[in-house]
Design brief:
homodimer, alpha/beta, seven-stranded parallel β-sheet, 42% helix, globular
Chain lengths: 293, 293
């Protein structure tokens, strides 16, 4: 794991050896508004899956910390009661790097978790600047969590959400307005262009209500994907994203563009001096044989 | 502008012609918590700059809508009273694409605004999933807006914020707790490793208080950058980011990886079938002469 965090030389070769042992774990993405109780939900889900005898991976991703490399959050305090359980593997990642959102480290960590036989692997976004979209690209099932009382947050969420949600969860369902939010989410679907109906579940992490139903809905989603070509389709999407990330990473590395503040200095100076335009400069990078003006 | 939005063939050549006419406008990034009144702040700032005889560009970027191509938000309703003013140029962009955060379209739009002689150009993030970090990479001056009463939001913001903020604004300063927030932001700086002191300003978009001081602070920031090598340094960073984006875009295009759901299908199938690992596949893309196993 540390190998993955630090991206030391040789880590790719080791990961490549794990690759044949991956591909059967269900990756569950959990995203939604800050304050919607995602963390408690992940905590309770982990307990339920453990009761079913499953070994669980939990990966908390913080896209708001791009400047901090590696796993800065450590084992998360709220998950501490799982930390003595060898059947639960918890990892926190500050995402980083030039490409934004969930990075190669996320994909790499999931691969290690898959190879360890953890199933499901729950990926949760934490912090602000959450990318509720990126998570759908690494998950087989994306759970979008919301709560009553956020006002226009649901309006705000609307933009890309129908395209990424596989399950909606209205958490803190013991609060007033939960049914209202649930019916709004159902109405939103009728207005939208969703290909299939997205189930809306009510949960309460305080009382534990709805948790069994959520686990069952997640299991059902896995079965649905596996019965059709859904699972294979998601695997292709996931592999496509991973491949693109790796290829871009290697491309940037090769051309000295990997570091945010670095780059081919002479070329950048020529661009800033307006002697070369950025598009010509980009072509120079792609075709280094061309001579600078 | 439509050329840029649609990224039609030939738009790059036209933008390249504009390049020599850019480089002197101040790009101001405005970011911060949802509900902090960023939009009203941009509105009032625009009015002040107009009173100073400046032609103003306003670019609202919505990173929460990666699936929607082009300018979906249209001219923003709240800015409507500026819409009859030929000295104000307003543009809304839904960011999108594989690379996350602010995309090439943002940089391209700024270039057009620079070439039009608009100065300053105010770039504001809207919606959820805000990338408060990316904006710092296109701006000369990044303004981080917060308000009293958000509780741990300031805690949440802490992660990368000292590294990107050039100015802090505590908006809704007529509300209780504004001074408290301001002093917390000052304390935060003493605890952190900031290289320079980041000014903390109090504003109220309701009363207009502090707006003149904000304009003056922005002007001062520009002067400070221009007096030292700060401006040139930021221009290098901005050019570096733009160049990287363009180079990656061209790279993805060349290798059929540009579309999220597409990719070299046979290679992806081999990866999903675990016949090839993703790292070997990435190398195959970079060095197409190698033969697949």
């Amino acid at each position: 794991m540390r190998l993955v965090d630090d991206r030391r030389p040789g880590f790719q070769a080791e990961l490549a050896q794990l690759w044949p042992h991956t591909g059967s774990s269900q990756v569950i993405g959990i995203t939604g508004n800050p304050g919607s109780g995602k963390s408690s939900l992940v905590d309770l889900l982990t307990t339920r899956y453990r009761a079913l005898g499953r070994r669980v991976g939990v990966l908390a991703v913080d896209p708001s910390s791009p400047f901090s490399g590696g796993a800065i959050l450590g084992d998360r305090i709220r998950m501490q009661h799982h930390s003595a359980d060898p059947g639960v593997f918890i990892r926190s990642l500050a995402t980083r790097g030039a490409l934004g959102g969930l990075t190669a480290s996320t994909a790499d960590t999931i691969i290690v978790m898959e190879a360890l036989g953890l199933d499901p692997i729950i990926v949760e976004t934490v912090g602000v600047g959450q990318d509720e979209v990126d998570i759908a690209r690494v998950a087989h099932c994306t759970v979008v969590v919301t709560v009553p009382g956020l006002g226009d947050e649901i309006q705000n969420l609307k933009a890309g959400i129908l395209e990424i949600a596989d399950l909606f969860v209205v958490n803190k369902a013991d609060r007033e307005g939960a049914d209202q939010v649930a019916s709004e989410l159902q109405q939103m679907q009728r207005l939208g262009v969703a290909e299939r109906e997205i189930p809306v579940l009510l949960t309460s992490t305080r009382t534990g209500a709805g948790l069994d139903q959520l686990v069952e809905a997640l299991e059902q989603h896995r079965r649905d994907l596996l019965e059709g070509d859904g699972w294979h389709h998601r695997e292709l999407l996931r592999a496509g994203r991973h491949l693109r990330t790796l290829a871009v990473e290697a491309f940037l590395q090769t051309h000295g563009l990997a570091r945010e503040d670095a780059g081919p200095r002479a070329l950048l100076e020529a661009v800033v001096a307006r002697r070369v335009d950025p598009w010509a400069a980009a072509q120079t990078i792609l075709r280094p044989q061309e001579v600078l003006p």
